[in-house]
Amino acid sequence: MSYDLNDNEYYEYKVDPSDPNSIPKFVDELPIPQVLQPTKKLKEGEYYEVKMLQVKQKLHKYFPETTVWGYNGTYPGPTIETMKDRTVMVKWINSLPKKHLLPVDRTLHGAIDTPEVRTVVHLHGARVSPESNGHPEAWFTKGYKETGPFFSTEVYTYTNHQQAATLWYHDHALGITRLNVYAGLAGFYIIRDHLEQRLNLPSGEYEIPLLIQDRSFNKNGSLFYPAEPPQPVPGVFPSVVPIFLGNTILVNGKVWPYLNVEPRKYRFRILNGSNSRTYTLRLSNGQKFYQIGTDGGLLESPVELDALTLMPAERADVIIDFSGSKGKYIILTNDDTDENTSNVMQFRVVLPLKGKDTSTIPETLYPFERLNENMASKVRNLTLDAVPDRYGRPSFQLDGKMWHDPVTEMPELGSIEIWNLLNLTAFPHPIHVHLVQFQILDRRPFDVARYRNAGEIIFTGDPIPPDPNEMGWKDTVRATPGQITRIIAKFDGYT
Fold this sequence. Notes:
Oligomer: single chain
Number of strands: 29
Strand content: 35-45%
Distance between the termini: 57 Å
């Protein structure tokens, strides 16, 4: 389909937000989230107050305004930047209405007898104290009028005792996390340190965060989220959908945007903020790019890639060199059979070079100490499976446990452990570990049927080492189906 970019009336009449085939791509410039300024500076660090608000926002040039939820009234929320070891304190303030934007399933744990709209913020990838971790049952309502059983403080303290890294903050309320994040409650949190700053990486206006998410819309431009699975559950409406994939792609809150760039190197901090969708990203001109960092910070050395796979919540720090592409339009694509969701955004190499590009891609980035398997004091086998709940819906469980089951895994402070993640399902699944960063050891195929029947682990192939761009600190790992994914971590606390 061809588009006349100057004929606004044509689009206002023809565009149906619910039909991605009618939506023109690359007509909105990529917005870049503002860096949040402290409410006040204290001796011990910076103090912020961040309000969660319901607002209307233009997600596409030819859409009506869409009602979303945003931190400080923007979707995505503002970026919080800090230095390693510099304390940040945030008072997260719920100023949302009592009625949710999206269908709330009251049969889910955490949503049965609680207020319909409740929030709690998790800083994903941070080493923090328990009271500042965003416990799913530490939720609170508008004005803190009602709080969850684990609520203990209005102000969260982030000590940032970890290396420079791309983290992100998002809602974490039990039973409605998927809805609150889908409504817009997500933002970047970037830790910097002096070692990173000495590397002469692209910086300033040449360092750009990219939050990639999929969404679907109703005809009036409002957010669409399904109220029931393809096979309705008798007596339950609305009902949770185990896996939901949107039919449009947004970056930084815009549907299929474009970014004008200079013919030089750019650094992109990429976050998969989707509920279920995995992305395998490429450049349409076949150009290679360099990954320099993972969830927990910089890699030991850059990894040259022609494709980058990110599961929900994973981050990648990459450098793209546009110096040989002057005047070209390059699409950031996604490996997908759908012609719409196979497009993410567009780079237009049309800006004049402001000055000589002196930034570098160093051969060595960050010292990396690999954890020794022989030092592990404990090896745990943890299964990932989809078990029918009382309504027959697939419920993803880790080691057969539900949320309110008694705690069974209790690592000791200072210990090193290996966790074997046995994926018994037919789908890859992201596994996120709070409060620590870990390293991936390997993945190995095993006989799932034998394990289900006899509880025996029979390997069916050799160990598969992690991909070169996974050889760094991680907090979210891709647990592949029919394989045991081994990770190793030191449980050394946050101070």
